[in-house]
Amino acid sequence: MIIRFSHVVAEHTPKGLAAQKFAALVAEKSNGKIKVEIYANGILFTDEEELEALQQGKVEMIAPAYSKLTNLIPEWQVLDLPFALPNDKAVEEALQGKVGQILFSNLHSFHVKGLAFWENGFKQVTNNVRPIVRPNDFHGLRFRTMPSDVIQEQFRLLGATPKVAPFHDTFRELYYQQVDGQENTISNIYSKKFYEVQRYMTISNHGYLGYVVLMNESFWNRLTSSQQQVILEALSETTTWMKIHAKIINEKQLNEIIRTQQMHIHSLTDEQKREWLNHLQPLYDRVRRQVGEQLMNEVLRIQQKYL
């Protein structure tokens, strides 16, 4: 049996390495009876195509960023709210608890099986015009974003202009100055060499970029219980491994970026983060109306616990 697993990032990012580890574990646990074929860097489907391809059965597994689900299922917008989950402990409590349960329960209606949450890291802001410290530093800049209404509105509230573009086009957009900047994790900034075409980076940790591992529901239902068990066990081990290694990879690659001396880097203080959050508060009111009180209140409870 062959399972095609499509993703859009490089092989040596947290997701790329996790996909490889998952494939190896599945082969080992199934004694070679199940083979997971990995298609990295969007060579099979772009990030704009992969969710529809999964629903149509053109691929069996994907692991998109949470933001890719927001246009399909509004509840997933809560994970795009800036500073909603301030640190790793908040992320774990949300995704392994009630928030994760609610989000997974909404997938069934779209013929998609949610299997696991995978880590990547917190997003940072880069640009090629000026240092970004205060909210008004965004004014007039153009930023590449994922196709998330919340993320686009985040930049508009800061006075910037968002431009949706596929992940694999981001370097080209930056290189040819079609946009001034972008937001991403350190591992993506490093692996795609954004630091070569961006002069400034703000360590803001303003949003969490993680992945949700999805399988075509019809394909999942055709698997035997023993085959399903192999996949779940392999995913569980991979998820535990990724929690440790995603942090290590991001820290190592940040040090590599620093060593290149190609970027001016500023880390936001707690006071500066609160200033950003206050500026972006209207987003919370809008998302509350779309996702409902129960989900929003749980996210806010976790935010206040760790902020």
Question: Can you describe this structure?
Answer:
- This protein has 307 residues and is an alpha/beta fold.
- Helices cover 44% and strands 18% of the residues.
- It contains 12 helices and 11 strands.
- The protein has helices spanning 14-29, 50-55, 88-95, 98-105, 149-157, 170-175, 186-191, 217-222, 225-260, 270-279, 281-291, 293-306; strands at residues 2-6, 35-39, 61-62, 112-122, 124-127, 142-145, 161-164, 181-184, 200-203, 208-216, 264-267.
- The strands form 2 sheets. Strands 7-6-8-5-9-11 form a 6-stranded mixed sheet.
- The longest helix has 36 residues, at 225-260.
- The radius of gyration is 19 Å and the shape is globular.
- The protein starts with a strand and ends with a helix.
Please count the helical segments. Answer: 12
Q: Give me the CATH fold name of the largest domain.
A: D-Maltodextrin-Binding Protein, domain 2
Major sheet summary line:
6 strands, mixed
Following the backbone from N to C, one meets helices and strands in this order, namely EHEHEHHEEEHEHEHEEHHEHHH
| Model regions low in confidence, pLDDT < 50 over at least 5 residues | none
Please estimate the helix content.
40-55%
Which CATH class of the largest domain? Alpha Beta
Instruction: Return the structural class.
Output: alpha/beta
Please tell me how large the radius of gyration is. 19 Å
Number of domains: 2
Q: Any idea what the CATH superfamily of the largest domain is called? A: Bacterial extracellular solute-binding protein, family 7
Order of the strands making up the biggest sheet: 7-6-8-5-9-11
CATH architecture of the largest domain: 3-Layer(aba) Sandwich
Number of strands: 11
Q: Label the overall shape.
A: globular
